[in-house]
Hints:
four-stranded antiparallel β-sheet, alpha/beta, ABC transporter transmembrane region fold, 10% strand, 26 helices
Amino acid sequence: xxxxxxxxxxxxxxxxxxxxxxxxxxxxxxxxxxxxxxxxxxxxxxxxxxxxxxxxxxxxxxxxxxxxxxxxxxxxxxxxxxxxxxxxxxxxxxxxxxxxxxxxxxxxxxxxxxxxxxxxxxxxxxxxxxxxxxxxxxxxxxxxxxxxxxxxxxxxxxxxxxxxxxxxxxxxxxxxxxxxxxxxxxxxxxxxxxxxxxxxxxxxxxxxxxxxxxxxxxxxxxxxxxxxxxxxxxxxxxxxxxxxxxxxxxxxxxxxxxxxxxxxxxxxxxxxxxxxxxxxxxxxxxxxxxxxxxxxxxxxxxxxxxxxxxxxxxxxxxxxxxxxxxxxxxxxxxxxxxxxxxxxxxxxxxxxxxxxxxxxxxxxxxxxxxxxxxxxxxxxxxxxxxxxxxxxxxxxxxxxxxxxxxxxxxxxxxxxxxxxxxxxxxxxxxxxxxxxxxxxxxxxxxxxxxxxxxxxxxxxxxxxxxxxxxxxxxxxxxxxxxxxxxxxxxxxxxxxxxxxxxxxxxxxxxxxxxxxxxxxxxxxxxxxxxxxxxxxxxxxxxxxxxxxxxxxxxxxxxxxxxxxxxxxxxxxxxxxxxxxxxxxxxxxxxxxxxxxxxxxxxxxxxxxxxxxxxxxxxxxxxxxxxxxxxxxxxxxxxxxxxxxxxxxxxxxxxxxxxxxxxxxxxxxxxxxxxxxxxxxxxxxxxxxxxxxxxxxxxxxxxxxxxxxxxxxxxxxxxxxxxxxxxxxxxxxxxxxxx
Length: 738
Ligand SMILES: Nc1ncnc2c1ncn2[C@@H]1O[C@H](COP(=O)(O)OP(=O)(O)OP(=O)(O)O)[C@@H](O)[C@H]1O
């Protein structure tokens, strides 16, 4: 089968080296090179975006290339020095031992070649003279065998040490990455997708790669010295070195290379994208839709159509596609023949002066030329990958710097030092103020000190990474008194959930302010503020941990109190789930372990088949059960005694009506003066009990008041309410006629 052609097109250059078939119609901007300073390469189904300055047609040894490499390496040095410091601190003895063992290993080729040449020379002289210096021969053979033994022993020794050291390095950087990543806020996560690629194994690979380059350079120079020394015996040492270097150097002559450049790669071929999307439909989560929708054949047909439309366009990663291009070129064919230059050199030596050379020297020259060629190839590969590796290290340490740039900055005001005051003592009145008084149910007897007071003033907000002009909140204003039960209603996308997220300080408002107990929310220490809040939203998930932890994490201090956890489970309606699960509270949800079976099926009546069948199965819960367990976590949080605001964002979509009613009733009855905000689409018992209803539309609070006040207004709320209420009203004959 023929290899698909990579098809290369460079949008910014006039000449194109490989014939193109532009099938990348999908992407809007990349093809046209509209972005200032961006150069676009089309490689198969991918587009590669590069900085215009960085791509030059150059040989590997061109001066600009080396200056470029030097400048970039300089930037990486700081990160590498930091890495060296960190790994040295993990185990100084191991680091030093491994370094010297690796350095020794890198000279292995030269040492062996030296003794081999010696043995051959003694034999050649012996065969020529009819007498062999047995002592010298035995010594040379013995020394070589000893060297082989030593180097192999060292390899075993160093491999063992390396494995030990590897696990320490990986443990260390797993810990570091976990710490950094858990400290990322939501706006940063939206901007840092590529950081997900950094893993502790990648750090280890980078470390070994950098070490390999240092040792490789040392080994390469020792080989060059040896080859030069050998060649000198023929009076053409330098020339011989050149014949050995010709092939590796010339094979480095490049097509535009981006292997070490900052780049963005994007799949832009519409047929390829469609194929990938269709392939994605095999995922388990789509199976029910696909089977019930009877669309299996449609998917297969569409996939084949896209495949046919894609034709021979390469789907390889662009880096690999570029490599294929190099291998397939006429230049590569020419360069490969240069492999034989050292042999031509030896033949020329014999022709020009048969008495000036000998077979052992010729043999050694050939051997060393081969070994030099291999070392160069490895070195080139390592140098090419060096930047990628160094970049991993540099980004690893950048994570720490990025943390300092988080937009959601911590304050230092403790929540407890700012208790809510019931009266609104502020000079500036917000656009819409609370019209209703705090209900007797909500306010506690000692003056509503338990509830949080909230004022939102002209808050605007857009999501990072969202469309620039799309405002999720647009001058939203309202105020909530301590202890009020507030219901937020409004159409889809009107900004209800965003409001809850801003109250939880997951994002900062772009403009305007949120006052908590009269102080700007950004002044509060986040941990202290969040301790005073219990949030329950659709976005809350179950963790891949035990049921006990899933609930207990609402109040970590009570984690070991099973009665407390069971009580919270009961309030969240999750007690029956725990009873049903085999391991009760200790049941692990979605365990992240590794299970793999090869040529074993759980239906096999063999010991392995039975073993597989008996392996722990993943415990799963339904959507409604998940919401109950998450609700139980929120009730667990109430036990801390610190909660002053309960924010509930439509957690009831998967709950049955009884469970939903229980949840609302439980929160209402247990709130003990806490301010409660419910976001909901369902009118009914909730809005009936609300002290304040906020009705949102397009990022603004357009109406506020109690149910009866809003109904009197006959505005948006009234309209939304009537849509639901009508369904239960007996239809009038006149309407039926209409
Ligand atoms: N993570 C996000 N990134 C970008 N835009 C978002 C994000 N989340 C929400 N939006 C946008 O912000 C606006 C407000 O969304 P929000 O989720 O607050 O609405 P909502 O009133 O809660 O809607 P619903 O009733 O459907 O839950 C919408 O236009 C939405 O598309």
